[in-house]
Amino acid sequence: MGGRATPERPVVLDRHGRGEPPDPEDSPREASIAARTAGARGLYGPDSQAWRLNREAALLLGAGPLAVLLQIAHPLVAEGVAQHSTFRDDPWARLDGTLRSYLRIVYGSTAAARSEIRRLNSLHRTVTGPVTDPAAAARFGGEYAARDPELSLWVHATLVWATLVTVERWLGEIPRERKARFYAETLVVGRSFGVGDALLPPDLDAFEAYVAEMLGPGGAAHPSAVSRDLAHAVLHPPLAPVVGRGAVARRLGAAAAPVAELLRHAPRSTLTPVLVPAVGLLPAATRSELGLPWGPVERALDAWLTTMWRSWRPMFPPRVRWFPQALAADRRVGATDGRPGVDPTGSKGCGAAEDR
After folding, report:
1. Dihedral sign for Cα atoms in the order 172, 177, 182, 183
2. CB 45 within 8 A of CB 113
3. Angle 60-72/149-171 helices, nearest 10 degrees?
4. Which of 62, 226, 269, 304 is the most exposed place for a label (fewest CB within 10 A)?
5. Residue 318: helix, strand or coil by DSSP?
6. What is the pTM of this model?
């Protein structure tokens, strides 16, 4: 992030993630070590807010569905998801793919992060088609393209906004200066996805104004019928795909297939109560437009689940709570720095939001 490199003078990231060329007096060995360290730190590095705020795996239950619900609240994003994925039958596939890509960009080496961004940009060039919802077509036109910078900005913004909202609601208030630093760190990724500086909000104040405008009365992010159909799929997911592939399947081994077959008969609403806290993080107007109920039962369930998670969280060590990608990044940077991995949150045991 920042700085320019030439073949003779590679960029090295300092402890704040800023890029500076090494001193010309450095030996080739020192320059090689510095370049390798920079690559290991990735786009952000261990002192970044991105590394600190994204590592709690349980936050996925809030930030993951929240980001997806906000994305599909934009009718054109909903069209792309509906037409170019098996989302209705298996919403886990999109959530899993989005999570893996996001974590690779945040915690991967510079090479891995850049490779993932190129892959996504290439994939999204093929995501085009007709707008099937009549109201959406009348408002936005008859065609959509995922690589439209305005749509790329909205998808990017939902991930940033969902992270901040979930961490703050579930772990505690984040000082505004930290929020501002976190947002500033995401600008490099927004640009990498084709959002130009003329469109990309330059700072936290502008970002918050942009999200408020998109969700406001005259904004673009107002759900269509397709959006509401997809939202139902998000909140009523089938259980079988969860154990039929990926990390859960690997842990279950030979038992994965029979367990998946058994879960194919489970009601699709089985997991809906667990996802209620994510619904509670939505702006009230958006929640209503998506047709999601939010009465006394949902409010009580939200409060109980959130309180229980906060109570149980300190009982588990970081190696259990944190994403494997975050732990691997700590080890990778520790190896290149010649020191063991450390807790980059710098917290006192109560969560990333308390690192002040």
Report:
1. positive
2. no
3. 150
4. 269
5. helix
6. 0.81
For the stretch 159-195, what's the b/e string if a residue is b when 16 or more beta carbons lie within 10 angstroms of its beta carbon? bbbbbbbbbebbbeebeeebbbbbbbbbbbbbebbbb
Q: Which value, in Å, is the radius of gyration of the alpha carbons in the chain? A: 21
For residue 313, the cross-strand partners are none
Measured CA to CA, the distance from residue 313 to residue 7 in angstroms comes to 47
Euclidean distance between the first and final Cα of the chain, in Å?
A: 23
What share of the chain has pLDDT > 70, as a percent?
A: 81
**What is the dihedral sign for C-alpha 300, 61, 280, 293?**
negative
For Cα atoms 56, 229, 209, give the angle at the middle one, nearest 5 degrees: 55
Neighbours of 102 (CB within 10 A): 20
Pick from 272, 210, 263: nearest CA to 235? 272
- Residue range 16-30, pLDDT digits in tens: 444 444 444 445 544
Judge whether 222 and 70 are in contact, CB under 8 Å: no
What separation in angstroms does the CA of 46 have from each of 40, 53, 58, 276?
10, 11, 20, 32
Q: Under a CB-based contact definition with an 8 Å cutoff, are residues 341 and 327 in contact?
A: yes
Report the mean per-residue pLDDT for the chain.
82
pLDDT in tens, 284-341: 999 999 999 999 999 999 999 999 988 888 899 998 899 999 999 999 988 665 444 4
The DSSP secondary-structure symbol of 23 reads: P
pLDDT at site 347? 42
Domain ranges in the chain are 1-41, 49-236+271-314
Whether the Cβ atoms of residue 35 and residue 17 lie closer than 8 Å to each other: no
Report the Cα 230 to chain-centroid distance in Å. Answer: 19
Do residues 64 and 43 make contact, with C-beta atoms less than 8 angstroms apart?
no
Q: How far apart are CA 277 and CA 302, in angstroms?
A: 5
Cβ atoms of 233 and 271 closer than 8 Å = no
Overall average pLDDT of the 143-166 stretch:
95
Question: Which residue reads 């077509």 in tokens?
Answer: 137
Q: Measured at the alpha carbon of residue 117, what is the angle toward residues 112 and 122, in degrees to the nearest 5? A: 125
What's 17's DSSP letter? S
